[in-house]
Amino acid sequence: MTAPRTPAAIVADTTADLSWQEDLYKYLHAHPELSGAEEQTAERIEQELQRFPEWEVTPKIGGHGIAAVLRNGEGPTVLFRADFDGLPVAESTDVDYASKHSQLNAQGERVPTMHACGHDHHTTSLLGAMAILTDTREHWSGTVVAIFQPAEEASIGAHRMVTDGLGKVIPRPDVCLAQHVVAGPAGRVFTAPGPVMTSSTTIEITLYGRGAHASMPDRSVDPVVLAASTVMRLQTIVSREVPPGKFAVVTVASVEAGKANNVIPDSAKIALSCRFYDEELRKKCVDAIKRIVRAEAVAAGAEREPDFKFVGLLGATDNSPQVFGALRPAFDEAFGEDSTDMEPWSASEDFPVLPKAFGVPYLLWTVGITPRKQWERAVRAGRLDIDIPTNHNPGFLPDLSTLPVATKAAAVGVLACLQSQWPSEEERAGGAAAPSTPTDREIDEVAVETSGAE
Ligand SMILES: [Zn+2]
Ligand SMILES: [Zn+2]
């Protein structure tokens, strides 16, 4: 009996037609839609899915979410997720497929839109991987689930698909995969086990004072001064309470107080965005935030306690060492020295909501998309931070040569998981406890609150 062919060998031999990919990518790139409003994008994806009559397609899951399932005999079930929402950013690139699109946001304002995070790339690559998997299905067996997910940037798309019954329309996966394009040498594929993306906690805080005439500060409890001292004191959490060498970000991204120069207002609002890899440290910092905010209010003589509104909560992306072990050798074979280690990334992702809903292991990897010459020039000049547009920057533009790379990575990743053994549901239930993450209840409460606010 001959050994089964490796994922890299299977993908190398494919004759799948991928000639449509670049046009599709350019179309999606030129027509970005905001989180939750991806109607035309979803329609176009559904249209593209007609290329694949072998896959069972379910549209409109949790809004514009789509699932496609290919059953191909006995074996594991592997889920691969691509997101497809854009951002309210005005594109500054000069390619002929740059977005000139705009859309009404939730507040009814017309805003320019851009695929500044590469979700158009993710979607095109997954469709390409579906073509390869369909073409090579005599070489593998099992089930593949392709998930096209809306509203990632709002952190609610995956949650909505799950709560809208995703589990009822797809077979239960054994393992979940996703990839993300990033600033980095074009075509490099980055993987790592363990925490690779941060958890995100967003808090809006209202500080109450007592309003007065601006000329009579003695009659007020001034919330502007209270907000100022609170913002400064919050800076001491990371500098004085977090162990040196541990990752934590506590950013006060918004301060709002007062509308007139002669009125001391009666309240102030601050909004915080906090990022962590370690869940214990997240809890410690959230406690410290509450302690400092309350104590500053007491110090100011405020009569009313501050209000805390948790408006966003995502767990960290904590890659499974087992999935990493299954994928990395396949990537090394497929990409040679372009398969390399991933550095943890301080951004956050809602992808882990999907594997968590099924209680299964997962891996998210990244693919570099910056033209190599541009990257190397910036490295030589010591100007990586300045010259290379990152995700969400108006100049973020994946090199077109990276579409086939991400397509191949998706196909190789799925095949590597199809060729591996995964513990059954019963075995998992009896196994080690899942790593500490925000509880489902915590996330549900926040997600419900956020989805109402859109
Ligand atoms: Zn993004
Ligand atoms: Zn993204």
Automatic annotation (TrEMBL):
<dbReference type="GO" id="GO:0019877">
    <property type="term" value="P:diaminopimelate biosynthetic process"/>
</dbReference>
<dbReference type="InterPro" id="IPR011650">
    <property type="entry name" value="Peptidase_M20_dimer"/>
</dbReference>
<dbReference type="Pfam" id="PF07687">
    <property type="entry name" value="M20_dimer"/>
</dbReference>
<protein>
    <submittedName>
        <fullName>Amidohydrolase</fullName>
    </submittedName>
</protein>
<dbReference type="InterPro" id="IPR036264">
    <property type="entry name" value="Bact_exopeptidase_dim_dom"/>
</dbReference>
<dbReference type="GO" id="GO:0050118">
    <property type="term" value="F:N-acetyldiaminopimelate deacetylase activity"/>
</dbReference>
<dbReference type="InterPro" id="IPR002933">
    <property type="entry name" value="Peptidase_M20"/>
</dbReference>
<dbReference type="InterPro" id="IPR017439">
    <property type="entry name" value="Amidohydrolase"/>
</dbReference>
<keyword id="KW-0378">Hydrolase</keyword>
<feature type="domain" description="Peptidase M20 dimerisation">
    <location>
        <begin position="201"/>
        <end position="298"/>
    </location>
</feature>
<feature type="region of interest" description="Disordered">
    <location>
        <begin position="422"/>
        <end position="454"/>
    </location>
</feature>
<dbReference type="Pfam" id="PF01546">
    <property type="entry name" value="Peptidase_M20"/>
</dbReference>
